[in-house]
Amino acid sequence: HELRNPLAVQRAQLEAIQEGVYPLDQDKVDRLYIQNQSLSHLVEDLRLLALADAGELALNQTRIDLEQLCLDIIRNFEPQTVQKDIRLIADLEADVFHVLGDKERLKQIVNNLMQNAMRYTQEGGRIKVTLRKIDGNVSLEIFNTGPQMSEETLAHLFERFYRGDRGRDRAGGGTGLGLSIARKLAEAHQGSLTGANEPSGGVLFTLTLPLIESK
What we know:
Layout: H1 4-18, H2 26-53, E1 61-65, H3 66-83, E2 87-92, E3 98-102, H4 103-120, E4 126-134, E5 137-144, H5 151-155, H6 178-188, E6 192-197, E7 203-210
Parallel strand pairs: 2-4
Antiparallel strand pairs: 1-3, 4-5, 5-7, 6-7
Helix pairs in contact: 1-2, 2-6, 3-4, 4-6
């Protein structure tokens, strides 16, 4: 369904161009290119999930400084937060946070969580990234002051393509697979990913990964 509908729309547009209903101009080419990119991203996301389900997802694991990885990603998001008047706070303990993992896949998890926080945080809101040690693990928390999730959404939060709240539909961007992929990647690293409403308001996602001893 998620592939069939956009493919049907794209085919209809191409047929209209073939029949002379629509002119083949640069605007139409650009729109078709963007649609093709979205479909390519969706296919790649589905491929990744299929590999994870089959236990065949290859990880290039090395010793990763998780604090530095988080700082790099936070810096990348700073221009967006300034533009949207969102306060971005980094609360990173003064410690060493080494994990064994695939750097690109770990970046994918954190990027997905940050994109999710940006999408649902209203103008003038706040995003807080917290990194700390808990019982031999490292806990990465990403909190945002966006609207809280319904109980139904919480129950299905990491299901593929699930869209319970009206504010969390295709118009919000993405393929609808970001959180599913993030959890699968966390589990592939022997970790976990959870999402919950904060009692005082807002939403909190927590990524937990096993620490390794620093050299």
